[in-house]
Design a protein that fits this description.
Helices cover about 50% and strands about 10% of the residues. The chain is α/β, with parallel strands linked by helices and about 350 residues long. The strands form three sheets. A five-stranded parallel β-sheet has the order 1-5-4-2-3, with helices on one face. The chain has a five-stranded parallel β-sheet with strand order 7-8-6-11-12, with helices on one face. The protein has a two-stranded antiparallel sheet with strand order 9-10.
C-alpha cells in the first residue's frame, strides 16, 4: 500500500531538494514560488478541456479523461527530467490549492520510492502569505530614498552603493521598467505580472538586515504596469531623502546612453511619444516625432527633459508632505563621481557591517 502523501507548510520548504510546480505553463508564467520548476500534470489546453468537460459532462467524465492525461504527463516527467534523481531525492509538489494535481503527482513519486510531499494550500496559500509580507516587511527597515530629476544618475548611484556593500532595493530592476513613458526595458522585454513582481519584492526584502539602512530610488506608486504595495509607499514617503543635482549637459549625456537603444527603431519611438498627447501641444509632439524618425535623439531628449520630465519632477517636489530633501551636488556623473558620492552617503549613514 502506498503511504498517504505528507502535507507540509511553507516554513518547511527548505527541507526539500526540488520544488515542483504542477500547474499549467501559463499559471507558472504568471507567478510561481521562487526556485520552482514547472513540470505540469496538465498543459494549458488539457486544463481548459478538463474544465469544459467538468462543466458540461460532469465531474466523473472530466476526471476519467483528465486522469489519463495526468498519468501520461507524470510518466513523461519521470522518464525525462527525473531519470537522474537518486533514491534519497526529496521533491515538494504544489498546484493551485494543494489539491488533485499535486496530490496525484506526489502519489506517483512516493510509489516509486521518493519521499515526495505536497505543499499545504498550494500556490493560493503562498500568494496569501506574500500579500501579508508586503504589508509586514516594509515598516521594519531604515529606508534612505535617493531622488533627482531624469538623468541624474540615481540608478547608477544605487549600483555604486551596492558595490560597496550597502543594502539596495532596485525597484526598476524588479519591475523591468524605468517608470516613464519611454521606460520600457530594451528589446521588448516584458514586465513581470503584478503577482510575480510582488513575489520578487518579498524575496528581496526578506534578505535585508533591519539593523542596516536600505537605499532605494524615489518612485511613484506605479512603475509601468506594476504597483508598489501601500506599506512600502508609505514607508518611503516618511524616509530621509537625498536629491542628486547635476548639470543639465551631464544629465542629457547619461539619458542618451541609457536610452540609445530606442534609436534602433525610429518609427516605434515616434509612436511611443503619442502617450504625451494631451500633455503637450500638437505642434510640440509633431516636432518630437519628426526628431525621433530622423534619429535626432539629442534634440528630442533635451526637450523631453525641459518640457516634460523636469516640470513633472518639480511638481512632485512642490506637493510637500514629506521630509525635506538633502541635496548632493555633482559636477559630473561618471563612475568616479558616483563612487565618491556613494562613499560619502555611506560614511554619513554610520558604521557599516
Amino acid at each position: 500500500m502506498v503511504a498517504k502523501p505528507d502535507i507540509v507548510t511553507l516554513d518547511q520548504i527548505g527541507a526539500f531538494d526540488t520544488l515542483i510546480d504542477a500547474r499549467s505553463p501559463s499559471e507558472y508564467a504568471l507567478d510561481h514560488l521562487p526556485g520552482a520548476v514547472n513540470w505540469p500534470v496538465l498543459d494549458d489546453e488539457e486544463r481548459r478541456l478538463v474544465g469544459t468537460l467538468y462543466k458540461h459532462a460532469g465531474a466523473f467524465e472530466a476526471r476519467r479523461i483528465g486522469g489519463a492525461w495526468v498519468a501520461r504527463n507524470i510518466a513523461r516527467h519521470i522518464q525525462s527530467v527525473m531519470q537522474d534523481k537518486p533514491a534519497h531525492w526529496r521533491p515538494l509538489v504544489y498546484c493551485w490549492r494543494g489539491g488533485q494535481r499535486s496530490g496525484a503527482f506526489v502519489l506517483w513519486l512516493r510509489q516509486i520510492g521518493w519521499a515526495a510531499a505536497q505543499l499545504q494550500g498550494g500556490y493560493k496559500q503562498y500568494r496569501r502569505w506574500v500579500v501579508e509580507q508586503l504589508q509586514a516587511l516594509p515598516p521594519r527597515f531604515d529606508w534612505r530614498v535617493i531622488g533627482g530629476p531624469t538623468g541624474s544618475g540615481k540608478t547608477r548611484l544605487l549600483q555604486a552603493l551596492a558595490a560597496r556593500g550597502a543594502q539596495v532595493l532596485d525597484l526598476e530592476a524588479l519591475a523591468r521598467h524605468r517608470g516613464s513613458i519611454l521606460g520600457a526595458w530594451p528589446d521588448g522585454q516584458p514586465q513581470p505580472s503584478q503577482k510575480a513582481f510582488d513575489t520578487a519584492l518579498v524575496e528581496t526584502l526578506r534578505r535585508f538586515d533591519p539593523a542596516r539602512a536600505v537605499w532605494v530610488e524615489a518612485e511613484s506608486r506605479k512603475i509601468g504596469a506594476v504597483q508598489l504595495p501601500e506599506a512600502l509607499t508609505m514607508a518611503l514617503q516618511h524616509a530621509p531623502r537625498v536629491q542628486v543635482h547635476a548639470p543639465f549637459a551631464a544629465r542629457l549625456a547619461l539619458v542618451l546612453q541609457d536610452y540609445a537603444w530606442l534609436g534602433r527603431d525610429p518609427a516605434a519611438l515616434a509612436q511611443r511619444l503619442l502617450a504625451l498627447r494631451g500633455l503637450q501641444s500638437n505642434e510640440t509632439l509633431a516636432r518630437w516625432q519628426a526628431w525621433a524618425r530622423a534619429g535626432h535623439l539629442a534634440d528630442l531628449f533635451a526637450e523631453l527633459m525641459t518640457h516634460h520630465y523636469d516640470p513633472l519632477y518639480r511638481r512632485s517636489l512642490a506637493r510637500g508632505g514629506q521630509p525635506p530633501w538633502r541635496t548632493i551636488e555633482l559636477d559630473t556623473l561618471d563612475a568616479a563621481a558616483l563612487a565618491c558620492a556613494a562613499e560619502r552617503l555611506l560614511d554619513e549613514a554610520g558604521p557599516r557591517r
